[in-house]
């Protein structure tokens, strides 16, 4: 690790100003992700600005929904009784992520800002368009068992690793951002850009913008939501495929739905065609099978990750069945 | 705030003073900001119980308690823990008077080579306090942040169950 300076910011505003004013500065929340980058040569900040003790860790409940502080730890949010009862998809996605020790350290803000686990990206001796534009993507012809089956670009086939982001997409969450020019809100759907020419662009944040909170509307679907994560081992592994779903059933038929996939694309991936397949129909075998099929209709897998298509189809079906059984 | 002192060739971070309460004892040490809590414990305080297995948050060998919560000491900086209470395996018990979890690991053969054991023991202490020792499945899930290359898992799970007061 190269040497760097460290300051504990005294307020969110001060933190944003410190990083905005210094291109070589970076925030640190729990440190569970950025310390790996520092050790592996993926980042080289001259200054770390600690935002882990700014008091941004509240979990607040209002009529409209939830407001989660960006500094809240994954474990504390997952354990919250209101979150567990009213936003099951959120509690489950958080609890399915990382390990108990990591969840005790990791902040929600840091979770949203984590970067792909593509092994070629993480190891600087490989070429990688995401690290060094124009050098190529060894995953396409190499080991891409863990890579994207949806929405990839020619330049990059990496996937986004966050479980939290997938749950937030199914909940229409909004990310509250503080910059030197004030606050703004970004819908989670716009927080992660679509694949463009430059795979280095991973979020809508500008340098120095601090995530201060996440707003989660309770809406008609949050309570009837679920999360299913398929992993290579029983626990403590990133998703091969995950599914977050939230379904509103009124008088026996689906009035609205959100279905988002994780582990399949460079961003959490909403599948509108799968949502549409449910609308106006009972949440039952026929509609569920159609939704599962629609979820993977646009899949364009690589030779080494075709298996993900079947897993995604099955996972969508299972999570919808589980929501149906709960009623 | 911690000072950043300018020196030749740019801004070089000064070593910073960090105060920690380690195993009940107030300790002050001067470290560069880049020093992890794990390295501070092992290299500066001579507490070599917490192990450096992967140094990337993937194995759990470095598990310690900070303010009674289990964390990986390899993925946090010592300076980030300023003012906090740190408990390592050395703070749990002694060979003469082991912590009940330590005794249960001995009793139930919860180890082979022993490399992962300090992390397993500290993690198990927290798991029991969290109330996650209700069943074998629950223990396996909530011990998943501690890998064992020797695969001593059956003994580890038996030890955690016994220490938590379940059937042995
Ligand atoms: C072995 C391992 C397994 C894991 N498995 C999973 C998994 O299964 N699912 C999953 O979802 N995650 C997983 N993770 C990732 C883990 O959840 C993240 O490392 C963690 O959430 C990052 O949070 P942090 O607070 O530690 O971030 P940090 O390391 O402190 O920061 C990460 C990034 O976020 C930026 N940042 C931090 N806070 C803010 C803020 N408030 N505003 C703007 N930028 C900010 C930092 O500048 C940095 O760029 C795993 C990690 C490890 C090491
Ligand atoms: S050494 Fe810290 S988790 Fe492996
Ligand atoms: S006892 Fe050898 S690694 Fe666990």
TrEMBL record, chain A:
Gene3D superfamilies: 3.30.465.10, CO dehydrogenase flavoprotein, C-terminal domain, Uridine Diphospho-n-acetylenolpyruvylglucosamine Reductase, domain 2
SMART domains, per database record: CO_deh_flav_C
Database matches in InterPro entries: CO_DH_flav_C, CO_DH_flav_C_dom_sf, Diverse_Substr_Oxidored, FAD-bd_PCMH, FAD-bd_PCMH-like_sf, FAD-bd_PCMH_sub1, FAD-bd_PCMH_sub2, Mopterin_DH_FAD-bd
Keywords from the UniProt entry: Oxidoreductase
Domain FAD-binding PCMH-type: 1-221
Cross-referenced Pfam families: CO_deh_flav_C, FAD_binding_5
GO terms assigned for molecular function: FAD binding; oxidoreductase activity
Domain of life: Bacteria
PANTHER family for this protein: OXIDOREDUCTASE, XANTHINE DEHYDROGENASE SUBUNIT C-RELATED
Protein's name according to its UniProt entry: Xanthine dehydrogenase YagS FAD-binding subunit
Automatic annotation (TrEMBL), chain B:
SUPFAM superfamilies for the chain: 2Fe-2S ferredoxin-like, CO dehydrogenase ISP C-domain like
Domain 2Fe-2S ferredoxin-type: 16-92
Record carries keyword Metal-binding: yes
A GO MF term: oxidoreductase activity, acting on the aldehyde or oxo group of donors
Pfam families: Fer2 (PF00111), Fer2_2 (PF01799)
This protein's UniProt keywords: 2Fe-2S, Iron, Iron-sulfur, Metal-binding, Oxidoreductase
InterPro entries: 2Fe-2S-bd (IPR002888), 2Fe-2S-bd_dom_sf (IPR036884), 2Fe-2S_ferredoxin-like_sf (IPR036010), 2Fe-2S_ferredoxin-type (IPR001041), 2Fe2S_fd_BS (IPR006058), Aldehyde_Oxdr_Iron-Sulfur (IPR052914), Beta-grasp_dom_sf (IPR012675)
Protein name, as recorded: Xanthine dehydrogenase YagT iron-sulfur-binding subunit
Lineage: Bacteria, Bacillati, Actinomycetota, Actinomycetes, Pseudonocardiales
